[in-house]
Amino acid sequence: MINLMINNKKVVAEPGTTILEAAKQNNILIPTMCYLDGVHKFGSCRICVVELEGLKNLQASCITPVSEGMVIQTNSKRVRSARKVLYELMLSDHPKSCLQCARNQNCEFQKLGELIQIEESRFEGEKSKDFYDDTSPSVIRDAAKCILCRRCVTVCNEVQGVGILNPQFRGFSSIVSPGHELPLNSSACTFCGQCTTVCPVDALKERDSTQKVWEALENPAKTVVIQTAPAIRAALGEEFGYEPGQSVTGKMVSALKAMNFDYVFDTNFAADLTILEEGTELLKRLTQYLYANGVITEEQLSRAGFKASEEVPSLPMITSCSPGWINYIEHFYPGQLPNLSSCKSPHMMLGALIKSYFAPKEGLDPKDVFVISVMPCTAKKYEITRPEMVNEGHRNVDAVVTTRELAKMIKDAGIDFKNLPDADFDNPLGLSTGAADIFGVPGGVMEAALRTVYELVTGRQLPFDKLHVKPIQGLERIKSAEFAIEDAKEEWRFLNGITVKIAATSGLKGASILMEEIKAGKSPYHFIEVMGCPGGCISGGGQPRPTNHEIRLKRIQALYTEDECKTMRKSHENPYVVKLYEEFLGQPLGHKSHELLHTTYTKKSQY
Predict the structure, then answer these.
(1) Is residue 354 included in any domain, yes or no?
(2) What's the sign of the alpha-carbon dihedral 458, 463, 468, 472?
(3) Which residues are 36's β-sheet partners?
(4) Do residue 174 and residue 142 come from a single domain?
(5) Model-level pTM?
(6) Which residues are catalytic?
(7) Cβ distance 252 to 422 under 8 Å?
(8) Could you tell me the pLDDT band of residue 483, with boundaries at 50, 70 and 90?
(9) Which residues are within 8 A (CB) of 319 and not within 5 positions of it... i.e. 6 or more apart?
(10) Which of 22, 140, 300, 453 is least crowded, fewest Cβ atoms below 10 Å from its Cβ?
(11) Helices within 354-398 (DSSP H only)
(12) Would you state the pLDDT for residue 61?
């Protein structure tokens, strides 16, 4: 351990610890701006400077490691004066229209000014940048508000591995943008929105869709239907003062009904449906692959309910419910597109069913039905604009609002969220199993699929504690597991002895590692789950800020608790899903299912 003095207090710290970390461990506050724990340590803003005995210049505490015998002052007159000047210089190049800003009272720059007691701005002059990039359907850039902290650069390059945001030019001309100052929509941006979760100001944010939703609600000719993703219920409460990890499902539904949505459905219903489609697709690919390689006969293939394929199916099969991930593979690994499941994401499936199944059943004209999805993800805003997401001339989903946007709408409607009674989703498209709840956690889609696929093949419950496949849970970048199939049912007996190998990753950096293995022909897996955001949907680009490691874990636990509290925990047990196939779809991967619930993908350039 290293001995040092901070503000005349003896402290110890481990070697490699920074001054900022040592101070935090001893409850000593050092203000920061560009620093982001576990993500960004760059020292660009210098707000965290401290005074070191024996050194002439102040040092950035976030990047300066401790050493034996250091004597540090974090709040001397010199340090406090320097911070104030640094802040005022940043403020001189920043708009002062706080009351009109979406981040008002939730702005780190604003809070920093309060912390270091800035009451006036002494410096005025020319502004370095003033352009507004609204070309993307998902993410808006307001360069005038950018304080050049470079957090977005780090998350885009080092966390996600996409690398479309970088500093351009030098000095007063410096900006953060795609290369050649291209707009976002002309770059290989995946629209994951992770940049919006780390931006301390309002320079990066989701495209606002709330006005579009209000207009639909105020239109008497429209039947307005809203659906909510699993991750919303685990995070929405944070916008109303709840601690992270408190599920607010019932109050969320009650708020939506108070806002006069005609129907409140649950995207979880379509998550259960996705498992039936995706699980069947996995079995189809696996058996056709075995047939193509001479392991099983055509009769065995037929007994399993499948026909011989003209092409050898691509394995491993990869999940397709994360649109940020879909954008990434289309731009960076188009050669691996055949590995993607053809399933649409759950909210697109539900949108298609609302207009093709539910609307006629209720005597509604699909063109007068307006479908809104509440999503944790900014990439969903792009997803609904894709030309593939149209059936019978109707867009599957008409608008997407994020968790943050829904919270703004509830407040705008004057609803006292905390004192609402709990309410239930509307049926038939509002009932779900526990397997659907865990779609919002890393590894959850894989776990949900295995609960059903294993039981369909063996007739037995998945042999893991409480149905949880723990090796693929958690926040590690890449997790893997394997299990052997034994004592399969008669029609699946040819799978006995096969060891199924699976992997799950959240965040595009992990996806690139798995894709390189597939590209090189070295992937050992049969099935891979990829979620576009680190930590999965619970830390999507549209979730409440901040999202850090501790908050992710609490949101994850909230969804596991939702799952474990349900009587039905496997997707094939959902009675309304079973009825949907009987009445309308026929069977998984059938003609109607293929038409409404499946899609194709597009090869895109990186530039």
Answers:
(1) yes
(2) negative
(3) 40
(4) yes
(5) 0.94
(6) 278, 281, 321, 341, 380, 383, 388, 537
(7) no
(8) confident
(9) 278, 341, 445, 446, 528, 529, 530, 531
(10) 300
(11) 359-361, 379-383
(12) 95
